[in-house]
């Protein structure tokens, strides 16, 4: 297992101009992370090829790997021309992944105001075709592409599985976020058990959960079913992180664990606490 951090953790400071991606990579190394996951929020790699080289150089200098490249995308609700343009755009993002030297790349697949299973079934063939074509393009570089369980529309474990099976490519898998299942009111421990065999990389995230009637106010958002959620430092929230990590261990997974933080606390200290908690919990799980 290789424990590291997603650059997304530092979006709070990047957005405020207090940190750039180079500083984020340095912070991850200082924390003891062995890899960084690159999420291009607050910086642009598509129009700044020099930054790709600078990122790889910085990671090498501080002695950490670049594990995964994660981008947004949407293939739902598009006309034929827009659909083809989006596929070609994501292929160009694969080229960036090649420049970063990664073998893993996550791209989003769909957003939809209509989150019904009926709409999902209708969209599935076209979504799968887009993912299949991108996975086939990535295969020539030895890159595995993936869909993450987030964004509500393709977030439940069975929908993720349905897409993976429809794509039917060995290099199309899932970025498995052990926390995100609560956004669609799914038990994370059950969902991790369902999908760990499909995982190319594992995110470790935590949430606070409050019932719909509590109405805790500013800083919270709602799950599909109406529960209130707020991002938490891993180990501080309401999720059973230890049980989820035990499932990861028992599956034989030996890849990257990537810490994610998206809460309200100052992001650098929160990420450090989350990283230390994941390392401690992983050691506890492996000692039992």
Any descriptors?
288 residues, alpha/beta, TIM Barrel, 8-stranded parallel beta barrel, 18% strand, globular
Summarize the structure.
This is Sugar phosphate isomerase/epimerase. With 288 residues, the chain is of the alpha/beta class. The chain has helices at 11-15, 21-31, 49-62, 80-100, 117-139, 157-167, 188-195, 241-250, 267-287, and strands at residues 2-6, 35-38, 65-71, 104-107, 144-148, 172-177, 199-204, 206-210, 221-222, 228-232, 256-259.
SSE topology sketch:
Blueprint (H helix, E strand, L loop, with lengths): L1 E5 L4 H5 L5 H11 L3 E4 L10 H14 L2 E7 L8 H21 L3 E4 L9 H23 L4 E5 L8 H11 L4 E6 L10 H8 L3 E6 L1 E5 L10 E2 L5 E5 L8 H10 L5 E4 L7 H21 L1
Parallel strand pairs: 1-2, 1-11, 2-3, 3-4, 4-5, 5-6, 6-7, 7-11
Antiparallel strand pairs: 8-10, 9-10
Q: What is the string of SSEs from the N terminus onward? A: EHHEHEHEHEHEHEEEEHEH
Sheet/helix structural class: alpha/beta
Number of strands: 11
Number of domains: 1
Give the full name of the CATH homologous superfamily: Divalent-metal-dependent TIM barrel enzymes
CATH architecture: Alpha-Beta Barrel
Query: According to CATH, what is the class?
Result: Alpha Beta
- Measure the end-to-end span: 16 Å
Question: How much helicity do the residues have?
Answer: 40-55%
**CATH topology grouping:** TIM Barrel
Order of strands in the sheet with the most strands? 1-2-3-4-5-6-7-11
> Unreliable runs, pLDDT <50, ≥5 residues?
none
Shape: globular
Overall pLDDT, averaged? 97
Question: What is the number of helical segments per DSSP (H or I, 4+ residues)?
Answer: 9
Cα gyration radius (Å) = 18 Å
Protein name: Sugar phosphate isomerase/epimerase
Domain Xylose isomerase-like TIM barrel: 27-265
Organism: Cohnella cholangitidis
InterPro entries: IolE/XylAMocC-like (IPR050312), Xyl_isomerase-like_sf (IPR036237), Xyl_isomerase-like_TIM-brl (IPR013022)
């Amino acid at each position: 297992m290789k424990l590291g951090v997603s650059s997304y953790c530092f979006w709070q400071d990047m957005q405020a101009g207090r940190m750039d991606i180079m500083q984020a990579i340095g912070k991850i190394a200082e924390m003891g992370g062995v890899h960084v996951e690159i999420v291009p929020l607050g910086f642009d790699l598509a129009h700044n090829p020099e930054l790709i080289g600078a990122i790889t150089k910085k990671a090498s200098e501080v002695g950490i790997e670049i594990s995964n490249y994660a981008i947004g995308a949407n293939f739902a609700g598009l006309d034929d021309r827009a659909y083809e343009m989006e596929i070609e755009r994501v292929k160009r993002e694969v080229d960036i992944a090649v420049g970063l030297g990664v073998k893993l790349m996550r791209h989003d697949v769909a957003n939809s105001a209509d989150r019904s299973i009926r709409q999902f079934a209708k969209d599935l063939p076209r979504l799968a075709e887009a993912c299949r074509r991108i996975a086939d393009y990535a295969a020539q570089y030895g890159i595995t592409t993936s869909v993450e369980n987030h964004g509500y529309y393709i977030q439940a474990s069975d929908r993720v599985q349905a897409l993976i099976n429809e794509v039917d490519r060995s290099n199309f898998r899932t970025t498995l976020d052990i926390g995100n299942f609560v956004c669609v009111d799914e038990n994370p421990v059950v969902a991790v058990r369902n999908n760990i065999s499909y995982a190319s990389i594992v995110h470790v995230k935590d949430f606070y959960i409050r019932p719909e009637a509590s109405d805790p106010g500013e800083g919270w958002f709602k799950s599909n079913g109406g529960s209130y959620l707020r991002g938490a430092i891993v180990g501080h929230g309401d999720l059973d992180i230890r049980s989820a990590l035990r499932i990861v261990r028992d599956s034989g997974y030996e890849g990257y664990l990537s810490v994610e933080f998206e809460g309200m606390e100052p992001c650098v200290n929160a990420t450090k606490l989350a990283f230390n908690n994941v390392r401690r919990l992983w050691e506890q799980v492996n000692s039992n």
